[in-house]
Amino acid sequence: MVTTLSVKTGRQGLFEFTSQLDTIVSGSGINNGLCSLLIQHTSASLTIQENADPSAKVDLENWMNRLVQENDPLYTHTLEGEDDMPAHIKAALTSTTLSIPIMNGRLALGTWQGVYCWEHRHHAGHRQIVVHIGS
Amino acid sequence: MVTTLSVKTGRQGLFEFTSQLDTIVSGSGINNGLCSLLIQHTSASLTIQENADPSAKVDLENWMNRLVQENDPLYTHTLEGEDDMPAHIKAALTSTTLSIPIMNGRLALGTWQGVYCWEHRHHAGHRQIVVHIGS
Amino acid sequence: MVTTLSVKTGRQGLFEFTSQLDTIVSGSGINNGLCSLLIQHTSASLTIQENADPSAKVDLENWMNRLVQENDPLYTHTLEGEDDMPAHIKAALTSTTLSIPIMNGRLALGTWQGVYCWEHRHHAGHRQIVVHIGS
């Protein structure tokens, strides 16, 4: 089964969509299987991270923004805005696809894990994610 | 088929578990298929790396420790220990899920490739990995 | 179905192989499914990136070369050449495996996405990629 979901972002940061994904997995009727994700963009990415303490998320965003800076004189790809090239680099350093096993009808995530869309641009609206569920 | 395996770590570093995985793949009876992995933690990760010369592993660990330092004044997420926030960042920069094709009943890894659990904390004991095998 | 493909590289950089992959997907006859990839090397990697403006690719390569430098005094793994240890680090920071959903008989990539082999060595010739296609 293949379907798509949309995550509202709107600003830089990590946006959790675990519950949207849970709903799709439940609806599939698959008991033991695999849920694979592709984000259809190169200036946003996917990550599985701690969803307990929001401070971890904030530090992750700030650390990445310090590593991959805007207005770096190295960049030649500047026509699409000062946040565009850093966004491509951050996407390359994180994940564009993920594969999460399904066990007993649920995503087999750890206790503190959530699935996130990591928005790397300042003003993007929605991001499309393709979801494949197989047995 | 979905199962779990546990990797003993205990200290920071790369811990190979290719042979544990080989045993699961052999036992599955799948000849051509896909073996997908999820580590159920956000302060340890997965990587496929060279398993021939141990010096590559050591350099990889040291390089990553220099890039993502403890006690960085940027961190606000500090209650769980000085190695916790760096661990989340390292997990985001490497992989939480992997998908390895199975060919002729074996993981289709390259000659020098091994599958590793990358422990990012100083004193974690065991890490749980969920394994899905499909055809 | 499991098969392999070979990407000619020869120098550092991003080498697109989306059309080779499209041909394999079309030939499989799978309408809705999953295409999973493993690169059988630890000094080259996989990434999904923008394939519209070549300047994004160039900046990505240059940024990564600045982050992960040759002849770093930290390295002890130096016998295989000055580009070898940086290549392993770059592989760990990007992806060794990818999973791309297939929708209506085609890879469900976004409009601007291409699939690339990222060669991290100066003189490697060809890189082998294992492709699994399932339903």
UniProtKB/TrEMBL annotation, chains A, B, C:
Protein's name according to its UniProt entry: YjbQ family protein
Organism: Pontibacterium sinense
Family designation: Belongs to the UPF0047 family.
Leader sequence segment: none
Coiled coil: none
Pfam families: YjbQ
Membrane spanning stretches: none
